[in-house]
Design a protein that fits this description.
- A 5-stranded mixed β-sheet has the order 1-7-6-5-4. A 5-stranded mixed β-sheet has the order 9-11-10-12-13, with helices on both faces.
- The longest helix has 22 residues.
- It has 7 helices and 13 strands.
- It folds into 2 domains: 106 residues, no CATH class; 138 residues, Glutaredoxin.
- It is globular and about 60 Å long.
- It has 262 residues and is α+β, with helices and mostly antiparallel strands.
- It is 39% helix and 20% strand.
- Pfam families: DsbC_N, Thioredoxin_2.
- Keywords: Disulfide bond, Periplasm, Redox-active center, Signal.
- Belongs to the thioredoxin family. DsbC subfamily.
- Required for disulfide bond formation in some periplasmic proteins. Acts by transferring its disulfide bond to other proteins and is reduced in the process.
Amino acid sequence: MRQFLCVSVFAALLAVQSGLLFTAAYDQAGPSSEAPDRDAVLDDKRAQAETALKQTFSQFRFLSFEPSSIPGLYQIDTGDRLIYYSDEAMAFIFGTVWNRFGVNLTAEAMSAAVVERMKDFDYSLALEFGPPDAPLLTEYSNPHCAYCQELHAWLREQERTGERIRRRVIFAVGHSLQAQKAAEHILCSDDPEAAYHAVYSRRQPDLLQQCEKGRAAVLAHIDMTRDAGISGTPTLFADGQFIRGFDQRAISDFLQNANFGE
């Protein structure tokens, strides 16, 4: 029986340093009359590799299986992360891929995958506040998540120092009934922004507001979270950039570049 190897970050054609995968940039072949046949062969090979993976690991769920930027490796989108797979070695590769120019190829691919999943979302039921023309942060958040509360406090401090931020909040609360009630309270309030600030500042009232419109909005938020493949909070999107967790540096860089130009 063929043995399946699950390895950390290594591959014969890749150099490993400090747990990160580095690779040189590869030139793309120019157009030719053979391109359609070559594409068909590659598509067939990808389909065969995906089928073999599903047959070997029938319980393994993922959203997409595509060729990666590294020849010979496929990238598997599991929802909140990318992992790499070599069908020849039958090996999973966990890690971050950088090219020689210092570009994080894994982050780029992850951002593109999630943005693609989110492109047709209806955000009319999302909670939005802040100057309409300010840089937009889309946040998948949980009112009872400690890191979400820390992020909120930090963003409020940035606003007090003059930073302009527009926030679009989607409540990722499918796993918690109590968090769903807190989100419904915020969305049912006469001033949802004020209610949001209070709950995220750990000043949630004992009596929570309820309403049919708010409950429907919470269910829509849960659906959007599932369809986006989000499994952890906070998760943010900033001008197409995927930011997992409260990454203060990444958020600061986005705000500074967006508000003042690169």
